[in-house]
Amino acid sequence: MNTKRFMKWLAPVLTLAVLGAGTVARGGARYTSAFCVRNADASGHCYGSLVAFRNHENGATSAEFSVSSDGAMLFKAEFAPTATAPVTSMSCTPNAKVAAFWDKALSHHGYFNIYWDAAGTCYHLYLANGSRYF
Predict the structure, then answer these.
(1) β-strand 44-49 against 34-38: which pairing, if any?
(2) How far is the first Cα of the chain from the last one, in angstroms, to the nearest whole number?
(3) How far apart (Å, rounded) are the C-alpha atoms in residues 57 and 12?
(4) CB neighbours of residue 111 within 10 Å
(5) Which among 16, 18, 46, 21 has a CA at the least distance from the CA of 34?
(6) Rounded CA gap, 101 and 122, in Å?
């Protein structure tokens, strides 16, 4: 094959290779962190997504937002930082400000961040939805 024919053959091959190399799909990126801490005074916080808590390496790790028929609202988490670490239980009931959007937390599938004080009152709840949280 002479040089001219080879270059005509090589040009489309290189073009396709360069275009293909620049195409990267990030649609499958997922937020997978789940974390809680309970301080010595019983205050603490948790963050992550419910899916991340369900898929945590420690099978006993969980988190939930609930409401009962009498209207009582509760956040409850069981968390261990590793597969073999002991599980720590924690919970809180929302103050009026947080309770105002508890219904959103009940059906939320995205990222959450919740804080509670030493008395077990949830005083801050942040919710964010996005494609990477499911």
Answers:
(1) antiparallel
(2) 54
(3) 47
(4) 19
(5) 46
(6) 12
**pLDDT digit string, tens, across residues 5-50:** 655 554 554 444 444 444 444 455 566 789 999 999 999 999 999 9
Q: Dig out the tokens for 54 from the structure.
A: 């369900």
Contacts of 36 (CB under 8 A, 6+ apart): 44, 45, 46, 47, 63, 77, 79, 88, 90
- What is the model's pTM? 0.75
Number of other residues whose CB lies within 10 A of the CB of residue 62: 17
The 3 state secondary structure assigned to 102-125 is HHHHHCCCCEEEEEECCCCEEEEE
Residue type, 100: A
Token reading at 1? 């094959």
Q: Choose among 53, 63, 70: nearest CA to 106.
A: 63
